[in-house]
Each structure stands twice: as C-alpha cells, then as structure tokens.
Automatic annotation (TrEMBL):
This is DUF1097 domain-containing protein. It holds the Pfam family DUF1097. Keywords: Membrane, Transmembrane, Transmembrane helix. It comes from the Bacteria. The chain crosses the membrane at residues 71-91, 98-116, 122-144. InterPro entries: DUF1097.
C-alpha cells in the first residue's frame, strides 16, 4: 500500500465520520471540509494546524466586522466598501508570521458569508475541520508505517 493510498483511505473514513457527526450535532459539514482543506493547503503537520486555525479565525473576524459595519452604515454600497477594506486586511495581516497563509484567511471570511454570519456554528465547524485534517494526515501516516510498502 502506498502512502497516498493510506492517506486516501483514512481520509475517506474520517470524512464520512465527520459528515455523520456534523449532522448529529448541528454543525456545518461543508465548513468542516473548508477547515480540513485549509490544514492541508497550509502544509499540514503542526505548523499547518496552527496556521489554519489562526488564519481561519482571522477571516471570520474580518467578515463579521464587515457584516456588522455594513448594517451600521446602512446604505446600498456599504457591503462593497467593507469588502474592499476587509480584503486589504485579509492580505496585509500576512506580515504577522502566524497569519502569513492568506488563503486561510479568505476561507474563514467566505465561510462566514456562506454561513450567513452564524459564527457560533461556524467556528467549531472550522476548528473541528482543521482537527479532521490533522487526524487524516496522522492516521494515514500510522497506517502507512504499519502496512505500507516503501515506494521508489
């Protein structure tokens, strides 16, 4: 069994379990997959875990600020103006080392809008999605170490 096969198998099983668990608890299943994707896109391992969590959270923060400020401003183009402003901050914050993974911030932001600003369901869904990614990687490595055939 290759390392890719091991990762694929454990990921498939764990993602199926996530779907069942998210459904049973009322969490947002697709947001969990967004968090999981962020973990892998950020490079996985411990650093990818930290980066995914921090950048997803920052994206949720900026999106919620945009939603609240757009409502306060109350004119038709307020959303456009807030989009311009938060997009700037989603990018410029990458000067901070832990927030350097810009796509993770955008994932947190667009997920907030897709969840209609329901950050109370979104945050645990994204967080558990990052945990899901970590578990997929970890169990894939364990399975490969136990049963894998070294690849050329």
């Amino acid at each position: 069994m290759s390392s890719l096969f091991s990762l694929s198998l454990t990921t498939a099983i764990l993602c199926g379990a996530w779907m069942i668990g998210a459904d049973m608890t009322g969490l947002i299943a697709w947001a969990g997959f967004a968090g999981c994707t962020t973990f892998f896109a950020a490079g996985g391992k411990k650093e990818g875990f930290k980066s995914a969590i921090c950048t997803n959270l920052s994206g949720v923060f900026w999106a919620m600020l945009s939603i609240k400020m757009s409502a306060i401003l109350g004119f038709p183009q307020a959303g456009v103006i807030m989009t311009i402003i938060i997009t700037f901050f989603l990018c410029i914050q990458s000067k901070i080392t832990i927030l350097k993974f810009i796509p993770g911030a955008f994932v947190g932001s667009f997920s907030t809008f897709a969840a209609n600003g329901d950050w109370m369901k979104l945050l645990p869904s994204l967080f558990l999605g990052v945990v899901l990614g970590f578990l997929c990687e970890w169990t894939g490595i364990l399975l490969y170490d136990k049963y894998g055939k070294k690849e050329d």
